[in-house]
Design brief:
Elements: E1 6-7, E2 10-11, H1 18-26, H2 31-38, H3 42-52, H4 80-102, H5 106-114, H6 126-146, H7 149-170, H8 173-193, H9 198-219, H10 225-237, H11 241-257, H12 264-270, H13 272-278, H14 284-298, H15 303-318, H16 322-334, H17 342-352, H18 354-357, H19 361-371
Antiparallel strand pairs: 1-2
Helix pairs in contact: 1-3, 2-3, 4-5, 4-6, 5-6, 6-7, 6-8, 7-8, 8-9, 8-10, 9-10, 10-11, 11-12, 11-13, 12-14, 13-15, 14-15, 15-16, 15-17
Length: about 375
């Protein structure tokens, strides 16, 4: 799988993988070898490496903690035809999101949701603000799953801003719940953006989750499994594996308790898929077992299956077994559907060149952990 991978978003090119190339150069890999793997020139690799080592400063897109406006402002209720029109628009937004999400049609869903923006151009009433916040939340969700990190970041941050304004007017916990849910998109989009230094990015994402936790506890609202899974992922990225494993297990418990999972395989995907990677000895056999279960639950065409293929291949490549490496590459070569999903296509590409890099075990581990959260389409 050397060379370019064509996705729905275009080719995965060396110029879009600056942080990954900079990491490889830090391992002392000759630019000529990297150039061969990415089908470019050694001089281009040197230029990409230089630019990646001088990233622009990134500020965490943190919102302020939602607070009530005191005294509570009076709002004229929305009645009649306007209320019916807004209710119909809200139904259209949710129906559109469910339809395209179920079919993994993220690009098409994004386009369809953007058509709902015009009727909510300048909301002032809390009901309209809440509806517009929900719309930008859904746009951010589809952009994130397509791999468009920049679009997801801007829409998620705006959604939180709208939820905050709606809560100031309404004092309605629904707006706090929207703020908390959108924090998950914001944190993950930031992680996949590759903006700023790596540690800075993870710490900013943790701050976003901490703020969501503060709001949830203050309003006595439960946090779902995704809050704990994301925290575990960030800690895993920071090398705090034991704390990460605690959060992965907590995510599984929360998913069961809150009835979020389709079945037990869904629960295992949220926790065990990542635990297999976080163990001192990556569990290649258990990862393959989970992949088989995932295929039965979600199907080979699903995003969930592609994610598990990449995670299983990562487990195999983390071992020191050459035969297992060959099996892992075969698995990556079979994952043609990854081309449909920008972030996962990037992961597939970077994992597939791992054996050719001939890295020492410690550097290979760092590379694979990095590759799992690298996104070639982060600036879109």
């Amino acid at each position: 799988m050397n060379g370019q991978i064509q996705t729905q978003l275009g080719d995965i090119r060396a110029k879009d993988l600056g942080p990954a190339i900079a990491l490889l150069r830090s391992f002392g890999i000759d630019p000529r070898r990297i150039a061969r793997l990415f089908e470019t020139t050694p001089e281009n690799i040197r230029q990409i490496d230089y630019r990646a080592q001088h990233p622009r400063a990134a500020e965490a897109p943190l919102s302020v903690t939602p607070a009530r406006e005191v005294p509570q402002p009076y709002e004229v209720p929305i009645y009649g035809k306007e209320r019916v029109r807004l209710d119909e628009l809200g139904h259209r937004i949710e129906t559109t999101a469910r339809q395209y999400a179920a079919a993994y049609q993220f690009s098409e869903g994004l386009a369809a949701l953007r058509q709902c923006l015009a009727p909510l151009s300048t909301p002032t009433n809390s009901y309209k603000l809440r509806l517009k916040a929900r719309l930008h939340h859904q746009i951010a969700w589809f952009a994130l799953h397509q791999g468009l990190s920049s679009t997801a970041l801007s829409n998620a941050a705006f959604s939180q801003q709208l939820s905050t304004e709606a809560y100031r007017k309404s004092w309605n916990k629904v707006d706090l719940a929207g703020f908390i849910d959108t924090a998950l998109i914001l944190a993950l989009a930031l992680l996949l953006s590759n903006e700023g230094s790596r540690t800075q990015r993870e710490l900013h994402a943790l701050k976003i989750l901490d703020l969501a936790k503060e709001v949830a506890e203050g309003a006595n609202l439960p946090r779902g499994s995704e809050h704990f899974r994301q925290r575990g992922t960030l800690l895993f990225r920071l090398g705090q594996d034991e704390e990460a494993k605690i959060n992965f297990r907590t995510a599984m418990e929360a998913m069961r308790r809150m009835g979020e999972a389709r079945d037990e395989t869904h629960v295992l995907m949220v926790g065990t898929r990542l635990l297999n990677l976080a163990e001192k000895t990556p569990n290649w056999e258990a990862s393959n077992e989970l992949l088989t279960k995932c295929e039965a639950t979600f199907g080979r065409e699903s995003l969930e299956y592609v994610m598990n293929c990449n995670a299983t291949a990562a487990c195999g490549l983390l071992t020191d077994s050459v035969p297992v490496h060959v099996e892992a590459l075969d698995l990556l070569n079979s994952t043609v559907k990854s081309k449909q999903f920008g972030h996962q296509a990037t992961v597939t590409k970077l994992l597939s060149i791992t054996p050719d890099l001939k890295l020492l075990a410690w550097d290979r581990s760092r590379w694979i952990r990095f590759a799992l959260h690298t996104n070639a389409f982060r600036n879109r």
